[in-house]
User: Fold this.
Amino acid sequence: MAFPENFLWGGAVAANQLEGAYLEDGKGLSVPDMLLGGNVNTPRTFLPKIDETAFYPSHDAVDYYHHYKEDIALFAEMGFKCFRMSINWARIYPNGDDPEPNEKGLQFYDNVFDECRKHNIEPLVTLCHYEIPWNIVVKYNGFYDRKTIDLFLKYAETCFRRYKDEVKYWLTFNEINIPLMSAGGIGDLYGLGLMEKGDIESDHRIPLTELKRDPKKTMEALHNEFVASALCVKLAHSINPDFMIGNMIARQVIYPLTSDPKDVLASQKENRLINDFCSDVQVRGEYPSWAHEVFSSMNVDPSFITEEDRKILKEGTVDFYTFSYYSSHCTTTHKDAEEGAGNMTRGAVNPYLKASAWGWQIDPDGMLYALEQLNDRYPHVPLMIVENGLGAQDKVEEDGSIHDPYRIDYLRAHIEAMQKAVDEGVNLIGYTTWGPIDLVSAGTGELRKRYGFIYVDRHDDGTGDYSRSRKDSFCWYKKVIASKGEDLA
Ligand code: BGP
Assistant:
């Protein structure tokens, strides 16, 4: 069987990792603008004030702000049906709490959507892909303050009204579950705009893994974000009943490392926390029955959840479920297990899998497993994979060509897994690969970790002329889309 006729093939990006122009046309600072780069062995660092002498990867990123026409034309050449992108909140409300939106920021996205329409590409827009305005972190402690719910809704309403006829598919928060993953402070900061005062005022660089965290604040801010997301769904439908509003989860496939029942129980526990906790709230409109165990294991009193909030959550369930999937990991109670990395998380290394150069274990069967798990758990909710891909270093040959068979192999195996799921009846509506054009890594801030079909001449030392070129995978993905996923050779 082929993929459905109207399957949303495409690619996904985030404003902060792509656009650059970080202070242009009235844009304010947002969280990623405050972060310096790291690498596979060294975490990214934070400084409360911009150091003009340092290299900040997101400040110029790959300069899509000035190349968007060329880039969208290249996506169209590959046959994209869908382009997942985010609006940078700080382009629209530079400080997050400004009385009026920034017209120039709104115009930029008008132009982007015009280009998409011109090429018949359906935009899928994330309202918040880590781009919380920095002022909201400093002044309100991110989503820890309920005032931020109102600020987010005001921003969302501005976007919904302005782009009512341009955009049908929206996601509220990217990877809303990252604060629950073992990612150190990066999850709290990216996901919730949450940072302890001492760290905000620090006079030296702090590795993101060393940011101080308080589980009570994390859980309360996350709850506030759930409320913001649910209110956003209601608001969206009141503005345009045809809008489709989704959640977005960093889906982790978690296996027990051994058949020791203690490992099986440990993996079930981790799976519930990381995968099901947030999505049950957003899809079913209520906390799962075992939520009290999660709160008590963190020593958190959940009395901040009010009856009114519970009603809001019930009324604001999402229309579709989206997720990122890159790799899987194992859980064990055995202390001697080797530890490996993954998307914003860590876990035990699976001896049956190979890993990328960044240590992310490659597991296409895990994608099939995730799709089946989701289909079982939320049988009536359409699913969409909105991120999947291989971060790898590419080599430009003397003639300018870029041969990336490793990327093609990775994507082929994952598309085959999707195909099996679709054959089994899983209601999968689309697939957008991560970073169809090279961009800044969220985890490490590197440019050398490339995901693209399109190569960008931009490097970690700040050199490069931003020129774009097609890798071998460009032609391959074009063929995949043209054949509706049948020709994967
Ligand atoms: C997800 C994020 C993306 C993206 C991706 C790849 O967590 O939603 O923003 O960056 O992971 O991760 P990385 O950039 O660290 O390779």
